[in-house]
Target: Leucine-rich repeat-containing N-terminal plant-type domain-containing protein
Amino acid sequence: MEDSRSNSRWVFINLLHGVLVLFMNSGLESATAAATSGNETDILALLDFKNLITQDPLQVMSSWNDSVHFCNWIGVSCSSSNDRVITLNLNSKKLAGSIPPFIGNLTHLTVINLHENSFSGELPQEMGRLWRLQHLNLTYNSFVGKIPSNLTHCKELTVIGASGNNLVGEIPEQLSSLTKLVVFAFGENNLTGNIPNELGRLSSLGFFQLYGNYLSGKIPSLIYNLSSIYYFSVTQNQLHGQLPQDIGLTLPKLRVFAGGVNNFTGVIPVSLSNVSGLQVLDFSQNSLTGNIPGNLKNLQSLYRLNFDENNLGNWEIDDLNFLSYLANCTSLEVLGLAQNHYAGELPSSIANLSINLQKFTIGRNLIHGSIPVGIENLVNLYSLGLEGNYLSGNVPSAIGKLQNLGALYLNRNSFSGSIPPFIGNLTRLTRLFMEENRFEGSIPDSLGNCKNLQNLNLSSNNLNGSIVGKNPLP
Model:
């Protein structure tokens, strides 16, 4: 008897599913809704979703059957008052497939979370019927096509995340009608065109992420006035223009401000010193000029300051004086100054930089003189880049005290003398580049202690001998 009842139920559901398809194709959604209960509509929509799953290595969909109430299916949550589906959470389930148009029938949904799966295909316009939807997370899948303009009907949306997909086209300006949006994340896609001015109307916006696209033009000035923004990343696009000089006043809640790999020009705004909670400031690979403002010393929470590959500095001997101010940034872990217009000597004040510093790059400038002995204080350095300068003299023993170093770049300078034996103390090294200097003599046997070395270049010096366990130099 039990099997008979189950079979009858599935026949009913399948028939109803066929009726729903017929009515949807005829544009008679209202008649369909009147003919079915909301619960059965939800079941059918979920089954349609299941039917389009093509890979399910964790057997998630095995629970989606008539032996279990659909509200107890893995990833499904229902309202306690009416058993309507309110949450579809299939985060990191290794699923592949596509989203069916029938997703639009789950009209009580407030959350869709498909983060980190392998879903593909286009996002159906029917998602615009989910007028209760608050949280849409489609990040790190393989969705294609354009951002559905019908999402503008989802007026309750506070989170819309679709980073890490293959979406194309322009950002619909109509999304500006989603006035409750807090998170707007479309990074790592193939979006083109300008950032719509209308997005400046999103007065609740806090998380603004568009990195890794092909966006062009300038950032609309209205967006710089959204005082609620705490995360701002437009890295790796084709944007240009200058950073507003009052940005530290208009975006006081910034924690992350990133726009690397673009075409920004002008100077670094002095007003950023007012953003006391700023943690990441990264505008590497642009065309910024001037210098790093000394008053950034006020940023006690700053742990990443990266201006590699810009036009900072004036080829003058006092270009690096600002480093003494950065000693106040006690949380600093990354300092990127490589490939700019810096000259002069490395100041002794680098000894006072944050003890938390892990990466320091200042290569490919016109810096001369010797490496300050005080560099030995930076005991947590993992990567030190001094390449492509005019540094000279012997490599100081202070370098041998940086025993957390994994990467050391001293190449293309004018260092002389022998390669010091204390290099062998740096047993965590995976990359060591010392080519194109004036080193001479034998390669120290101690270099054989660096068992983790994966990349080693000592060429274009005047060295002889071999590394223990390695072939002789040609």
